[in-house]
Amino acid sequence: MEESTEIQKDQETPLSKRPVWTALKDAIKGTEADYTKIDLKKAIFLLAVPMILELIMESTFAVVDIYFVGKLGASAVATVGLTETYLFLLYSIAMGLATAVTAIVARRIGEKKKEEAGAVAVQAIILAILASLPFAVGGIFFAKELLGLMGADQWALEHGYRYTQWMLGGNGIIILLFVINAVFRGAGDAAIAMRVLWIANGLNMILDPLLIFGWGPIPAMGIEGAAIATTLGRSIGVGTQLWVLFKGGKHIQAKLVQIYWNGKVILNIVKTSLGGVGQMIVAMTSWIFIMRILADIGSDAVAGSTIALRIMLFTLMPAWGLSNAAATLVGQNLGAGNPDRAESAVWKIGLYNMVFLIGVSIVYFFFNHALMGLFTNDANVIKIGGKWLAILSYAYFVYGWWMVSVQAFNGSGDTRTPTKINLVFFWLIQIPLAYILAIALEWGYSGVFWAVFFSETGVGLFTLWLFSRGKWKTIQV
Fold first, then answer.
1. CB neighbours (10 Å) of residue 446?
2. 215: helix, coil or strand?
């Protein structure tokens, strides 16, 4: 009884009155804290820290993976890039499902319906497996044809296709990793999601050089080894997820008796996920068009923009982690009947995001050439990428608010509103404006960068205004 009282007091203690290292240890270890009741700043910290670390690990893996594959030659890198074209569509589905699952699980946890949250987790797993089957069949039996469709060279068709077979054939592992971690995040077990991704990607980074280049009795498998390493590492990660989920996390547990087809729950997940999938597809295709316009300008423009984008994605990881925390807090507090607390969480996280990204934008503005110089020695590529970083630095204070407000909509279960907004601002404004400024008015790559600046500043302000109207508080999932 005394121990229980001490735990409750510890949970209710404001973050400012606790040692930083103690709070950090709790965030990484995970707690049984009720995120609908504890001090709001503490709730944000406990959720955001593991989410940030999870995303940083994912981005680190992407860099390390392409580093080892790059040693096999340009054709091997091209094979990875062409395979990722198909994986991007898969990621859109996986992330759309994950968005819906986070929202629904968070709502059930907030309603104190933990058994129903576990049932949602099981149905999400079944749906993820079903969604992976078409990609698996296509990857296993038509890998060469898929690569050929994307214009792969002879090396890729003769040797690289095995990479595509493994990655698409084992795509179910990727979707499950996304979806089950979304379950943990929605439940408030962000620390578990973080540790799973560290296990999966940590093993991947160890296995990569071993299987690609060989060592001792282990034969060199080349690019196929990279795919096997990814599949093995992530398979162990999924195995860990399932073990923890059915054993019971700190906030959620699935049960074997729940493994059956539940059409009502499946339909709810599908309906909620459609908007999330739409968001990903709109964003993905808009960037394809932007890169196509840059390709007309020249290869240096594509190279500079690609490197700048990698820098941006890496530096945005903490902001995305904070934004993901907003989705969980919105979902749980709406479920608990606390819409005002849900809104307060978003405004607080938005402020933290803005402050962080203003700091990033200052670095972009003054040190853009130095950042580009870390990845290339080509003066023109550095100039172009530096220009993009400098221009987008003007929009970052708004961008932080956009990220949080979008996740607030998603966390409430309203995934369709951000999709509609993205359609207007990215397809109907950004792409035409980029073409007009870059090609018609002959501004070149600067025209593309300014089009991105205007459209993303606009979408950020409009989404935040729409959020402030509060209709998202009435969404039912």
1. 16
2. strand
Give residue-wise pLDDT tens across range 391-446: 988 888 898 899 999 999 999 999 999 999 999 999 999 999 999 999 999 899 89
Are 369 and 446 in the same domain?
yes
Domain range for 100 is 40-261
Phi, psi of 18 (to 5 degrees): -115, 145
**Helix or strand or coil: residue 127?**
helix
Nearest CA to 296 among 190, 172, 443, 396?
A: 443
Q: State the pLDDT confidence band at 72, using cuts at 50, 70 and 90.
A: confident
SS3 for 218?
A: strand
| Secondary structure letter of residue 189 according to DSSP | -
The span from the first CA to the last CA of the chain, in angstroms, equals 36
Does 45 map to a domain?
yes
- For residue 2, what pLDDT is reported? 44
**Torsion angles phi and psi, residue 377, rounded to 5:** -105, -5
Nearest CA to 43 out of 23, 17, 25 is that of 23
Q: What is the pLDDT of residue 3?
A: 42
Domain check: are 112 and 144 in the same one? Answer: yes
pLDDT at 355: 93
* 286 lies in the same domain as 254: no
How many CA atoms, within 13 angstroms, populate the side-chain half-sphere of residue 39?
16
Higher-pLDDT residue of 85 and 92 is 92
